[in-house]
Design brief:
The structure holds 2 protein chains of 2 kinds.
Chain A (H helix, E strand, L loop, with lengths): L5 H17 L6 H6 L8 H9 L18 H14 L5 H11 L4 H12 L4 E4 L14 E5 L2 E12 L6 E7 L10 E7 L5 E7 L5 E12 L4 E2 L6 H36 L1 E2 L2 E2 L4 H30 L4 H27 L10 H13 L4 H11 L3
Parallel strand pairs in A: 1-4
Antiparallel strand pairs in A: 2-3, 3-7, 4-5, 5-8, 6-7, 9-10
Chain B lengths: L2 H16 L26 H12 L18 H13 L9 H13 L2 H12 L5 E4 L15 E4 L3 E12 L6 E7 L9 E7 L5 E6 L8 E12 L3 E2 L5 H17 L9 H5 L4 H29 L7 H24 L11 H10 L9 H12 L6
Parallel strand pairs in B: 1-4
Antiparallel strand pairs in B: 2-3, 3-7, 4-5, 5-8, 6-7
Classes of the chains: A alpha+beta, B alpha+beta.
């Protein structure tokens, strides 16, 4: 427990060198941002993920995937975070793949995910703050199927997605866990309007309007009215994954900052010689180590199915977002004026942290979950 | 069944048969901890029996070699034992500086004679040790210590004063840093072991803000120490001292775990602002617990950075201070009571302030991380 196996170390090394070489900020994030790419990521890199087998990381071996778990996904996501590499990995290979596992939708979509052609998305949020239980988007039975009416927002890569896993209410009222159903909604579904929204970190999320979107009964993922369980499972792997990516963002920002402390001179000294900065850098180091341990533990618990998994996902997401926020704030401040320029990469870490921090629930949402799950 | 699985079931059965119900109750206060030593008065027969049966199996120090009184368990077996003890809430049979600090240093730096002589006594809880490190003029600047040991041919003659010597008034022996050379600061320090009953040793407890006196001033006036009671080479005791400090810091970092369990669940805060702060704390505490597990695994596997105990000590003690601040807030005016059961909150709170000072201040730990892990210049 808590140390990597040899296979995991190998996967980590593969992901680290692949993402440092091919997923670098200059090659990917800045490139696609500066040419105004509508997807916010490069399909070429996603194909390379597929060639390495990584798009199938969480897809069962029986379907041609690697059949690995949240822990292995976390190792890849930390490297993605470190390089700010834009890709559909979290939304498609982890959350999307898990949401349709064991269903006919898996059979339908896994081949495309494995080949790096299909992109999946998850539509949950309906307001500016994450509140999955409050899902109100209505799915009304009609004939043999359902008609969906309502709106979703912050659907990451929603306009690039071929299929959107959509949480809808088939019974009960907002606030109820019962009565939720997951649907597989194809991008070209009639009545679905997709508004591509550029976010602060140059990634794209969509606002979706469901204007009487008719779906066949076989669009249902899992069971009607019992969508909470698969939804919370998808959100848990998403939360653990986002936590791991945040640890990578924090590590990347801290590494840049540490380099700067060792080369920038003022008053005839390296600024890293000043104790005022040394102590802050050392504190940040400790916090990042702790966040990494929490994120990895959450992923391991998800894989082993042990009981405190849900608690630790919230611990990991809250802690990693807190620490990554500290890392980017300290990073910009310690870089001084250059840290405020678009030319320097440190600001890109700050932008990415803000989006990942919000994704699948922010620090406050997850602290609340920790309190609730701890019985107070 | 694998070997480890059968070890687990045997261990479970053995613990079931040998750990009395009384030894499975949570530790409520200092009085419930068994420190051992020549003058130890057992709190109960159950406490005595628990120490005896565990020591007999070498399970007071499960991962030490059997030849030195340990259990000779592998890393995996020791973990299983720990998990099985946690499962039934078994108290540690023995807590001591011998186990957590001196033992590891002797295993690494001691001669075979040292190991054969001292380690079994530690394992059985027969000798209680104290630590002679800090001096009035050598706190954070520990290597500036002045207590001197002169080579008198067949013995060392020790003169000087130590301070903050934990439980010196209750300890049987001391592991003590002394100056054997003034040629260099760190290079003139030796690591001696001697009996606190040796003529010339005296102690005086220091009353703390918490109302208790866990620390003492310790005085050495012409104390004669046999020549072979030195660990490591003459004037090369700093290496031993630092190694031991790593273990001390690791031990103190355990403060970060508290008594286990959620602070919010224990205090049930009604005030929403306080509840929010406690939830933020619980996130940090649970994350630290994950780090603590990871650090233990890395240490055992030899993958931990040598300076990482400093990181752990810093994080764990700052966390424990925060826990106590919040416990005081949650307790309100009742937490201010100084006597009886409720008095413990205030006393524990005040005692926790020492956590980030003893064993090297938080600031010293940050210096060490900055220099040895981050490689910052001039640190």
């Amino acid at each position: 427990m808590s140390l990597l196996t040899d296979d995991q170390k190998m996967l980590q090394q593969t992901a680290a060198s692949f993402l440092a070489d091919e997923g670098s900020i200059a090659k990917q994030l800045r490139h696609w941002r500066d040419i105004g790419c509508k997807d916010g990521f490069g399909h070429g890199l996603w194909k390379q993920f597929a060639e390495l087998g990584l798009t199938g990381i969480c897809i069962p071996e029986s379907h041609g995937g690697m059949g690995l778990g949240a822990a292995e996904a976390a190792l890849v996501l930390e490297e993605i975070g470190r390089n700010l590499a834009p890709s559909p990995f979290l939304g498609t290979a982890v959350v999307g793949a898990r949401a349709i596992e064991g269903t006919a939708h898996g059979e339908r979509w896994y081949p495309g995910v494995l080949s790096g052609e299909a992109v999946l998305a998850l539509a949950v949020d309906e307001g500016p703050r994450h509140a999955p239980q409050q899902t109100a988007l209505e799915a009304k039975r009609q004939g043999n199927g359902f008609v969906l009416r309502g709106a979703k927002q912050f659907v990451v890569q929603g306009s690039s997605a071929d299929m959107i896993v959509t949480a809808a209410r088939t019974a009960g009222s907002p606030g109820d866990r019962e009565g939720l159903t997951l649907f597989a909604v194809a991008k070209d579904a009639k009545g679905l309007a997709v508004d591509n929204v550029a976010l602060v970190d140059s990634s794209k999320a969509a606002r979706l309007i469901f204007d009487n979107v008719s779906l066949d009964a076989d669009a249902v993922i899992g069971e009607v009215d019992n969508g909470w369980q698969p939804l919370s499972r998808a959100l848990a792997v998403g939360g653990a994954g986002a936590a791991a990516e945040l640890v990578g963002v924090a590590s990347g920002a801290a590494a840049l900052t540490l380099d700067y402390l060792k080369q920038r001179k003022q008053f005839g000294k390296f600024i890293g010689e000043f104790q005022a900065l040394q102590h802050r850098a050392a504190h940040l180091y400790a916090e990042i180590e702790i966040a990494r341990a929490a994120a990895f533990k959450a992923a391991q618990l998800l894989d082993s199915g042990d009981e405190p998994a849900e608690l630790y996902v919230s611990v990991a997401k809250a802690k990693a977002a807190d620490v990554a926020s500290l890392a980017v704030r300290e990073g910009v401040q310690m870089h001084g004026g250059i840290g405020m320029t678009d030319e320097h990469d440190i600001g890109l870490f700050m932008k990415r942290e803000a989006v990942l921090g919000e994704l699948f629930g922010d620090v406050y949402y997850h602290r609340e979950q920790v309190a609730r799950l701890s019985g107070y | 069944m694998t070997d480890l699985e059968s070890f687990r079931s045997e261990t479970r059965a053995w613990l079931e048969a040998n750990c009395a119900g009384e030894m499975r109750k949570p530790i409520r206060s200092e009085a419930d901890i068994c420190w051992g030593g020549r003058n130890w008065t057992f709190q109960s027969d159950a406490q005595k029996r628990w120490l005896e049966v565990m020591a007999e199996r070498g399970w007071t120090v499960p991962d030490w070699p059997k030849d030195y009184g340990g259990g000779g368990l592998s890393v995996a077996e020791a973990r299983v034992l720990k998990e099985e003890m946690q499962r039934i809430g078994a108290r540690p049979p023995l807590t001591s500086f011998g186990i957590s600090m001196l033992g590891p240093a002797l295993l690494k730096f001691g001669t075979e004679d040292h190991k054969k002589h001292y380690l079994p006594q530690i394992a059985r809880g027969e000798i209680r040790w104290c630590q002679g490190y800090s001096e009035p003029g050598a706190g954070s600047d520990l290597a500036g210590l002045q207590t001197k040991a002169e080579d008198k041919g067949d013995h060392w003659l020790v003169n000087g004063q130590k301070v903050w010597t934990s439980y010196a008034d209750k300890a049987d022996w001391i592991f003590c840093l002394v100056r054997t050379s003034t040629e260099s600061k760190q290079g003139g320090i030796s690591f001696l072991l001697f009996d606190m009953e040796t003529p010339g040793v005296s102690t005086k407890p220091i009353l703390l803000i918490s109302g208790s006196s866990p620390f003492c001033e310790t005085f050495f006036d012409d104390v004669k120490v046999p020549k072979d009671q030195i660990v490591g080479e003459v004037s090369k005791g700093w290496d031993v001292a630092k190694y031991l400090l790593g273990h001390e810091r690791e031990m103190i970092s355990g403060m970060g775990l508290g008594m286990g369990g959620s602070l919010g669940a224990a205090t049930k805060p009604q005030d929403p602002m306080l509840r929010a702060e406690i939830a933020a704390f619980d996130v940090d505490a649970l994350a630290f617990a994950a780090m603590s597990e990871r650090f233990a695994a890395m240490s055992k596997a030899g993958e931990a950075h040598p300076a990482s105990p400093s990181m752990m000590k810093y994080a764990g003690t700052e966390l424990n201070k925060r826990r106590n601040e919040l416990a005081m807030a949650a307790g309100g005016s009742e937490a201010l009571e100084w006597e009886g059961q409720t008095g413990a909150t205030a006393k524990t709170w005040l005692r926790s302030k020492g956590n980030s000072i003893e064993g090297g201040t938080s600031e010293i730990q940050l210096n060490i991380v900055a220099k040895h892990i981050l490689g910052l210049p001039g640190a």
